[in-house]
Amino acid sequence: SQNIYILAIESSCDDTAASVMLNGRILSNVVANQKIHEEYGGVVPELASRAHQQNIVPVVQQALKKAGVEKSQLNAIAFTRGPGLMGSLLVGTSFAKSLAYGLNIPLIDVNHMQAHILAHFIDEEDFNKPEFPFLAMTISGGHTQIVKVSNYFDMEVIGETIDDAVGEAYDKSGKILGLGYPAGPEIDKRAQQGNPKAFKFTKPKVDGLNFSFSGLKTAILYFIQKETKANPNFIEENLNDICASIQYTIIGILIDKLKLASKETGIKHIAIGGGVSANSGIRKALKDGEKKFGWTTYIPKFEYTTDNAAMIAIVGHLKFLEGEFSQNNVVASARLKL
Ligand code: KG4
Ligand code: ZN
Fold first, then answer.
1. pLDDT for the residue numbered 225
2. How far apart are CA 232 and CA 8, in angstroms?
3. Residue ranges of the binding site for substrate
4. Ligand 1 pocket: which of 114, 188, 276 to mutate (most atoms <8 Å of CB)?
C-alpha cells in the first residue's frame, strides 16, 4: 500500500507548530512558543500574528529536516482552519494554501478542537487508542467541552463552558496571586505542596453538563482582597495552600461534570485533551475514576496535550484516507464549530 506523508501546520493561537507524519506515525513535531506574550500577562492577537509570520518558515523547514522528508515526498498539507484568533489562523491558512498549490498536492482543513480529541489516535508504542463511543473532555486556555465521540468524524458537544475556559480560570487566578503567565503549570506545581482543604471556594451552580468559571475567579479575587487587607503578607505566607485549594475546587468541578456525563450517556471510556490535561490533579482524579467508577481513561502524552501540529497531522491523515480534501476557496474561521 501507498505511503502517506502529511505535513501539518498549526497557528490558531500563540504557538507556531509544524509536524510531519508517515502513515499515522509522527516523524517530527516542532513547536515555537511565543515568549512575547508573557510580559503582557496574556496573548496579544496582533503580536501573535506577527510572530507566526516570522516563525512559520523556519518551523516548517525544521519539521521537514527533523523528519528527513523532502517537500516532493509530501502527499498533502493539513492546516488548522479554526477556531482561534483570526490573525493567527490567517498566517497558517495562507501559508498552507500556497505551499499545497505550489507542490500541486491536496490541502486538508482541520478543526482544532477535533484535533485535540483525535490526538488520541496518533500511532504510538505503548499507547491504547480509545474505543468508540467515548467521552472526550477538552480543557484548555480557550475551551472547556465534553464531547460524545461516536466515530472519528461523528462528534457531539454535550456540555461546555458558558463563560471562561478552565485554563483561563487558572491563568486569571494566577494573575490575582501575582504569578506569571500562563499560571496553570505553576499553580499545579505549588498545589502538590499545599493543603487542598486549607481554603474553601464554592462551586458554581450550573445545570446539566455545562460549566462556568467566571464566578470562581471573582470569589478568589474577593477572598484575596479581604485576606490581604487583614494581613498584607497573606499570599506569600499561604501560596501553596491557596494554589492547592484552587486546584481542588477546579478538579472537583471537572470531575462532577464527567461523572454526570458518564451517568447520562452510559459511556465509561473517557479521554482528556488540551493544555490543562497536563495537570497532575486531573490526571490523578481520572486514574482514581478507574477504580471508583469503573472508567477506562485515556490521557495523551504530554507533547500532544498543549497546542501542537501532530494532532493536526493525525486528522489530516484520517481525512486523507476518506478523500476529504479542502476546496480551493477554503477560508480561516475564528468561530468554527465542532
Ligand atoms: O491547549 P493550550 O496549549 O492552548 C489553548 O488552546 O488554550 O492550553 C493552554 C492552557 C493555559 O491556560 C495554561 O495555563 C494551561 O493550559 N495549563 C495548565 C497546565 N499546563 C498548561 N493548567 C493547569 N495545570 C497545568 N499543569
Ligand atoms: Zn488548543
1. 98
2. 50
3. 138-142, 171, 184, 188, 279
4. 276
Ligand 1 binding pocket mutation candidate from 113, 140, 282, 286 (most atoms within 8 A of CB): 140
User: Does residue 293 contact residue 259 with C-beta atoms inside 8 Å?
Assistant: yes
Residues with CB under 6 A from ligand 1: 13, 140-142, 167, 170-171, 182-185, 188, 274-276, 278-279, 306-307
CA of residue 142 to ligand 2 center, whole Å: 7
- Summary mean pLDDT of the chain: 96
Q: Residue ranges of the domains in the chain?
A: 5-120+306-322, 128-300
Q: Is pLDDT at 255 greater than 80 in this prediction?
A: yes
Measured in Å, residue 338 CA sits from the centre of ligand 1 at 20
Pair type for strands 107-111 and 76-82: parallel
For the entire predicted model, the pTM comes to 0.94
What CA–CA distance (Å, rounded) separates 239 from 237?
Answer: 6
CATH fit for domain 128-300, picks 2.60.40.420, 3.40.710.10, 3.40.50.720, 3.30.420.40: 3.30.420.40
Task: Please report the atom of ligand 1 found closest to the CA of residue 167.
Answer: 12
Q: Is the dihedral of CA 141, 143, 148, 149 positive or negative?
A: negative
Write out pLDDT tens, residues 132-149.
999 999 999 988 999 999
Calculate the alpha carbon distances from 60 to 149, 243, 319 in Å. Answer: 31, 38, 21
For the chain, what is the radius of gyration of the CA atoms?
A: 20
Residue whose cell numbers read 475546587? 249
Q: Which residues contact 265 (CB under 8 A, 6 or more apart)?
A: 133, 135, 148, 158
Q: Which ligand places an atom closest to the C-alpha of 189?
A: 1
* pLDDT over threshold 80, residue 34: no
Question: CATH number for the 5-120+306-322 domain, one of 3.90.70.10, 3.30.470.20, 3.30.420.40, 3.30.870.10?
Answer: 3.30.420.40
